[in-house]
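User: Structure please.
Assistant: Input sequence and predicted structure:
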Amino acid sequence: MLAALAVIWLASSPRAGGPRQYSVAGSSPAFGVNAPGVLDDLPASGASELLGSLGLGSDADFQDYALGLLDELGAGWVRIDFRFDGKRFIVPGAYLEKLEANGIEVVACPRAPAPLDADSLAVYEKALSESVASHPSIRVWLIDSEFEAGAPDQERYLELFLAGSRAVRAACPDCRVGLAGPRMDGPAGQDTLAYYDSLLASLSGSEGARFDIFDVSCYGPAGAAGQLEATLSEYQGLLEKHGMEAGTRLWVTECATYSGQPADPPGLPAQSEEQQAAELVERFVALLGAGVERVAWAELYDLRSYGGIPGGFHDHSGLICNGLGGSCAAGDQKQAFGAYQLLIEKTRGFVGVSRLAPGQYRFDLGHGRDPVYVVWSAEGTALSPELEGPVRYTDINGYVYETSTLEPRDAPVFVHKL
């Protein structure tokens, strides 16, 4: 039980039975969203159903809807994939202008040609250089995503990266270039570790192969924060082995868990909205505490038939309900939306993150401001001496309490010392 517990504040404007709403000023450069306002990965029927359920009549309406959500959330950046049609990159130009006009940084991820062969790579390199030159406000280019062991054409990723890197550096010498890292849905597989060991060894000996960002992703059910730290450490070790750790930043541009029970992959356990919300905060805090520079949630809203699979993982992993078979109405904010909003608000302007113990992190805010701590229960972990004494804390639903002795909960809380 919590000692000397008193509820002292309640966030305003709740939706009935759901999360609280928060007032957020400005955006945070550490926190982003992957591909909001984009329907490229949905079949035409799925895109039509999603738009209809949300009451939106066009792609432009959908983009404006996403912009409003990003502004409310306070996210500072988005990743947008640039699709290659064999001759040029398909770029949502008007939408990019809207994002930039709203102060949201765009990180581009040009996708690989298919088939991935010498002829297509030559066209890809020329087209990418032209695309970089025509988008001078985009300063980060990620050369595809998730090229791990077993992925299609993974043996040719070295050629793809070198072609992409040359194209970016030629058109924008001071832009940052990202290498496609693995999915970290569990312990690092030996085949994947061996693949990246070999890839990094090849890059370390290749002229013009420098990269600035190592981009990984993480999906799967709740309870992954501790394993993510261990898996990430394996890849940090490979970067160090090949002398690349000093100049390389770690990013996670796709990360998600779900609410409800996806039909695919089979065997996933059902999860509540609160479990999804708690997992979002725990993963992002643990990743930032492990040295990751930027994190992004993979879906702003539940998708529809992503990859042609009705009711799959990505149809349940958004922060906004799609109203197509779930337990909440179209457009309702899940608890995870409010939790992400609160994480952004509470840590705004942080200059460093320290891991005090499993489930206990300190965000240093700079400019003489007191730090904020993010804390949840981790089996067998005693409370850090830094957190002893009276505190005020906020739960992931926006309720604020004071207590003379903090006892960590299953779900994260944001803590200020009194």
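Residues 118-134 form the longest helix (17 residues).
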